[in-house]
Amino acid sequence: MEHILIADDDPKIAAIISEFVKSHGYIPEIAYDGRQALEMFAKRDYSAILLDVMMPHMNGFVVCREIRRTSNVPIIMITARGEDFERIMGLDTGADDYIVKPFSGEEVMARLRAIRRRVLPTECTPSARLMTFGNLTIDVSNVQVFIDEKPLSLTKKELEILFTLTENVGKLFSRDMLLNIVWGYDYYGDSRTVDTHIKRLRAKLDVFDHPDWQIKTVWGLGYRFEITDNKE
Q1: Do 211 and 230 touch, CB atoms closer than 8 A?
Q2: What per-residue confidence (pLDDT) applies to 45?
């Protein structure tokens, strides 16, 4: 199994993240300060690192910079602060993404999956490369979508929305969660742009009959991908 390093000096937050990591099939390992994080990193190959900014002995920026000297492992920086200069500094030191407390554990995992698709496409497992739901086939590694074996022409954002929803069947995503995952935390546009993109995505999907699955709107809350049971 793959290991994920969680570096956070708050035991409660580290424990919460750890539970989400385990629920998604990874083995979590926790470091409670920056120095310990680097020591653990030197002893094992991690699939990703969730890195708090403010930690004893060595802050997250320094840890990230040191890791980037030898590795391109996906890194998400986590902090209680939201100032632009900290976000910029985190990305400049080599972080792949940045998330501000308080946060949803599911959002952290969704961001992690999105980063791994971009940064480590060759490390996807066979089951992750090809997803099938009835007549819908999603080839993640080759970034293609087929319905009834016919290719769909989707924009990059439409693909990312569809990938995010289908990788989390049955899980509800609010507009803000999709906005952060697909457009990024530094996007300051209207969250209604998510509605517009999903409307266009649905229009392309609905050219075909798809009784076995749907993108479901949960009014006032968001969207989720559902497998529908049409048996009598």
Answers
A1: yes
A2: 86
CA distance 201 to 14: 37
CA-angle at 157, arms to 155 and 160, nearest 5°: 110
In this structure, are residues 26 and 1 in contact, taking their beta carbons and an 8 Å threshold? yes
Given this model, what pLDDT does residue 217 score? Answer: 94
Q: Which amino acid is at 94?
A: G
Mean pLDDT, contiguous 10-residue spans, the chain (232 residues)? 90 90 89 95 90 90 89 83 63 79 80 70 48 86 83 84 88 87 65 87 94 92 85 43
**Residues 105, 20: contact at Cβ < 8 Å?**
yes
Own/partner long-range contacts of 159-165 (Cβ < 8 Å, ≥24 apart): 160/114, 161/194, 161/197, 161/198, 161/201, 162/138, 162/201, 163/114, 163/117, 163/138, 164/110, 164/113, 164/114, 165/215, 165/223, 165/224, 165/225
In sequence order, which residues have a C-beta less than 8 Å from that of residue 77 and are 6 or more positions away? 51, 52, 53, 60, 64, 90, 95, 97, 98, 99
Q: 182: number of CA atoms within 13 Å, CB side?
A: 25
Order of all β-strands in the sheet with 150-151: 130-133, 136-139, 144-147, 150-151
Q: What DSSP designation does 171 have? A: -
- At 101, list the tokens: 């407390």
CB 47 within 8 A of CB 73: yes
If you search the block for the tokens 């708050």, which residue do you land on? 10
Residue 7: exposure state from Cβ atoms within 10 A (0-12, 13-18, ≥19): buried
- Whether this prediction's pTM lies above 0.70 is answered by no
